[in-house]
Amino acid sequence: MELFIGSHLSTTGGWNALLKRSHDEGGTAFAFFPRSPYGKRSKALDPTQAAEFGARLKAQGYGPLVVHAPYVYNLAGKDEAKRQFAIEALIEDIELLTPIREAGQETYINIHPGSHVGQGAETGCQLISEGLNQVFERANGIPVLLETMAGKGTECGRSFEELATIMNDIDNKANVGITFDTCHVLDAGYDLVNHYDDVMNQLDEIIGFGKVKAIHMNDSQFGLGSHKDRHANIGEGQLGIPFFTRLVNDPMMAKLPMILETKEQTPNTHRDEIALLRSLVK
Ligand SMILES: [Zn+2]
């Protein structure tokens, strides 16, 4: 099986530069931020050229595009103005990306669900569903993927149950899915190393494989249940090569776009990690 795999790339230089970076690393999938980490819209990504970009990806046989929303969005926050910012920005992001999907290229936008900042997980999950419903009333051209979180601080989405709760309250369920972050799932307390099948069965029972649309491929510096969210390079963390071998040979998971969010130790790190992961396919 051919993996759809690549890394999270810089948008400096715009659409063509993005694609060039992907070619350089030998990728068949990738992610990028549509905005700066603080939420300012990227000037490099000209909306009028988005459709052409989508058509090129499609023609070149790329896997689904998994754009990453900036970390600053917090749909579960206390501050109404900040929640409103996240809603408006997400609508704009969906509008930017919709022509890519309309050009035939499967596209998703991945978000960190949000942090409840002391209001409690139940309230946090509710606020996230409400915020997303407001988004989808005004823009629904691109499904939003909720990322599995490490459970750092007051993060919502740190268990399959919390993610299912958020998704359950979405009016049109076709608009939401899940990104499975390997580092975060271990961090959250799911033993992917010793009980891979059990974790995947839970994922299927609670969320359903059909809702999982992408994977963030990260090894983890810290171990099971650490809630630290520190990525390690592939094979250099607590997950290790046997886990990644299992994952890339799991028919339910290996068909999904796999996005590396590991540190670039050298300009070749991601190219090497992509080649390494491909070499694990039996
Ligand atoms: Zn993320």
From TrEMBL:
Catalysed reactions listed for this entry: Endonucleolytic cleavage to 5'-phosphooligonucleotide end-products
UniProt similarity note: Belongs to the AP endonuclease 2 family.
UniProt: Zn(2+) 2 binding residues: 147, 181, 216, 261
Residues reported to bind Zn(2+) 3: 184, 229, 231
The keyword Plastid is annotated on this UniProt entry: no
Gene this protein is translated from: nfo
UniProt-recorded name of the protein: Probable endonuclease 4
Cofactor-binding details, from the entry: Binds 3 Zn(2+) ions.
Enzyme Commission number(s) from the entry: 3.1.21.2
Cited PANTHER family: APURINIC-APYRIMIDINIC ENDONUCLEASE (PTHR21445:SF0), ENDONUCLEASE IV ENDODEOXYRIBONUCLEASE IV (PTHR21445)
GO MF annotations, alphabetized: deoxyribonuclease IV (phage-T4-induced) activity; DNA binding; DNA-(apurinic or apyrimidinic site) endonuclease activity; phosphoric diester hydrolase activity; zinc ion binding
One Pfam short name: AP_endonuc_2
Cofactor: Zn(2+)
Keyword DNA repair in annotation: yes
Database matches in SMART domains: AP2Ec
Record key words, sorted: DNA damage, DNA repair, Endonuclease, Hydrolase, Metal-binding, Nuclease, Zinc
Protein purpose: Endonuclease IV plays a role in DNA repair. It cleaves phosphodiester bonds at apurinic or apyrimidinic (AP) sites, generating a 3'-hydroxyl group and a 5'-terminal sugar phosphate.
InterPro entries: AP_endonuc_2 (IPR001719), AP_endonuc_F2_Zn_BS (IPR018246), Xyl_isomerase-like_sf (IPR036237), Xyl_isomerase-like_TIM-brl (IPR013022)
GO aspect biological process, one term: base-excision repair
Binding site for Zn(2+) 1: 68, 112, 147
